[in-house]
Amino acid sequence: MKTAIYPGSFDPVTNGHLDIILRASKIVDKLIIAPLINFNKVHTFTLDERCRYLQILTAEMKNVEVKPFKGLLVNFARMYNAKIIIRGLRAVTDFEYEFQMALSNRKLDNEIETLFISTSLPYLYLSSGMVKEVARLGGNITDMVPEKIKQFVIDKLEG
């Protein structure tokens, strides 16, 4: 069984994240979405909120689970016998950071591979930071976040 981990802050989940989740779920037997506690970021949404939103969005995907984590990603992957880490790429600027992380993870565990999936064209510009900025300023985020969680995001950021 091929198990993959898709880690991220998902603060909030965007249509770009959902695009990667849908596509990755088709190429592995089991996909674990792993919202993380990133000590280098100040999260707008709590870990519980991020997990709940991801669970809402993936409820009908039988091979997808949501499991939060903190610590080293390779240790988390080992816990679930995952040999693949999924990472989404938007632009060349993402690649430099993601490549460095992939090499670091490979150094820590040479049995775990990183699979880069380039985001679909409509989401190249999209980031969680962009969603938060637009929502806080009262802009329309309809094309930025999945419809099922849009009102949650608006309520949190406009309130």
Describe this structure in words.
The protein has 159 residues and is an alpha/beta fold. It has a single domain (3-124), classed as 3-Layer(aba) Sandwich (Rossmann fold), CATH 3.40.50. The chain is 43% helix and 17% strand. The protein is built from 6 helices and 5 strands, in the order βαβαβαβαβαα. A 5-stranded parallel β-sheet has the order 3-2-1-4-5, sandwiched between helices. The radius of gyration is 15 Å and the shape is globular. The mean pLDDT is 94.
Provide a short characterization of the protein structure.
This protein has helices at residues 15-25, 47-58, 73-79, 92-108, 128-136, 147-158; strands at 3-8, 30-35, 64-66, 84-89, 113-118.
Key features?
single chain, Rossmann fold, globular, 5-stranded parallel beta sheet, alpha/beta, 159 residues, 5 strands
- Cα end-to-end separation: 44 Å
CATH class: Alpha Beta
- Characterize the main sheet: 5 strands, parallel
CATH topology: Rossmann fold
User: What's the number of structural domains?
Assistant: 1
Classify the secondary structure makeup into a structural class.
alpha/beta
Q: Can you tell me the residue ranges where pLDDT is under 50 for at least 5 consecutive residues?
A: none
Average pLDDT confidence is 94
Q: Residue share in helices? A: 40-55%
User: What is the overall silhouette?
Assistant: globular
Strand order of the largest sheet: 3-2-1-4-5
How many extended strands? 5
Q: Helices and strands, in N-to-C order?
A: EHEHEHEHEHH
What portion of the residues fall into strands of 2 or more residues?
15-25%
Second rung of CATH, namely the architecture:
3-Layer(aba) Sandwich
CATH superfamily: HUPs
Q: Determine Rg (CA atoms, Å).
A: 15 Å
